[in-house]
Amino acid sequence: SESGETTTLEKADGGWQVVDPIATPADDSKVTAITSGLPSISLVRVVDEKPTDLENYGLAKPRIDVGFRTSGDKDYRHLLIGEKSPVGGDVFAMRSDEKRVVLISANWEPSFNASTFDLREKALLKFDHSKLDGIEVSAGGKLLRFAKDGREWKLISPLHARADYGAVEGLVGRSESKAKSFVTDDASPADLKKYGLDKPEATLNLTVGSTKSTLLVGGKAGDGAVYVRDRSKPAVMTAESALSDDLKKAAEEYRLKDIFEFHASNASRLDIARDGRTVVLERVKAEGDDTADKWRRVSPNAGDVDKDKMGGLLSRLESLRAWSFTSSTAKTGLGSPAMTVVVKFDDGKKEERVTFGKAGTGTYAGRPDEPGAARIDTAAFDSAVKALDEASK
């Protein structure tokens, strides 16, 4: 590379490995950019068929030297890249088996001007994301556990509750992010202590079936980074400190804040009990391709529901979100509900029940599949009640 660093890679068992100056897996995307780029380079033009002084083109001592050998080759062939052309966005280059100097696009330079760090695998953890089925986070004396339930994540410790898919996947994504740097490739016990990895501040376990991958997070490394280590490897790396921040979040921050799971587009029936009466609303499927579904009020007074009024009710219910959570239903008003909503959705395959209570100036929501209650915006709840009244007329 331009920095003077030389890196040697070899392909074995279908994968690329860095073999010098260290032995470590290679970054497949970086190596592929080189291997696919070499046969794809097109000449901008030939500059000099028989140059007398390569110094004029920066090729006497090339800035970049890419040596490559294919199966059947005895010796390496080289692509040599010199200085940039004084005119245009091109660079001088030549092949080691040719005398002529040519111009190639400078767009190739970032792929070929690669250091050992650029070419090595830098993912903090390597695992099959598509088969990930369990997550365990230990930090600050607290333990969080998540389990995959179909396509969704569930929080199973310290309590059982729905998890925010985006937040959990964001945490997983942090573990797949690339290291900022490698501090050492063979950490000693003294090194681990120095970097706070003998007694990690946080531990992340990811499970794929019976296979577990573990990332240890140590002390601060400065410049917005922390020391980390894949437990199965001797190397110590640095990573963005946001990883440590995510691992130290409380369980509440990973809980799903949406009170309802249904969407306006997939709801099929609502049973809403309030003030001693129950309003039942059902979706009527359209019979033709050019017609839209309708909503019908089954009770208390049967009839079609205005499209806009029904849309307003569904939208307001769907948008209710938790501000915070309480571990108990005491002093939430849920013992004497202000309203109970039962929704069927996904063509009636799924059903959810949410009870709402009021206590003082606070409004709360409770679900039978989650402990405690969620504090919600009183104004948003009152707006949903008003929309219900409109749809009931």
Polypeptide structure, described:
The protein is 18% helix and 39% strand. It has 393 residues and is an alpha+beta fold. The chain has three domains: 8-119, no CATH class; 129-252, no CATH class; 267-392, no CATH class. Strands 12-11-10-9-14-15-16-17-13 form a nine-stranded antiparallel sheet. It has a nine-stranded antiparallel sheet with strand order 21-20-19-18-23-24-25-26-22, covered by helices on one side. Helix 7 (307-318) runs antiparallel to helix 8 (378-392). It is elongated, with a radius of gyration of 31 Å.
What form results from the Cα inertia axes?
elongated
The largest sheet, given as strand count, sense and whether it forms a barrel, is: 9 strands, antiparallel
Question: With helices defined by DSSP (H or I, 4 residues minimum), what is the helix count?
Answer: 8
Uncertain segments: none
- CA distance, first residue to last residue: 75 Å
Report the structural category. Answer: alpha+beta
User: Widest sheet: strand order?
Assistant: 12-11-10-9-14-15-16-17-13
Total count of domains: 3
- Our Rg estimate from Cα atoms comes to 31 Å
Query: Which percent range fits the helix content?
Result: 10-25%
Quantity of strands, as a count: 26
Strand-residue proportion:
35-45%
Overall mean pLDDT: 95
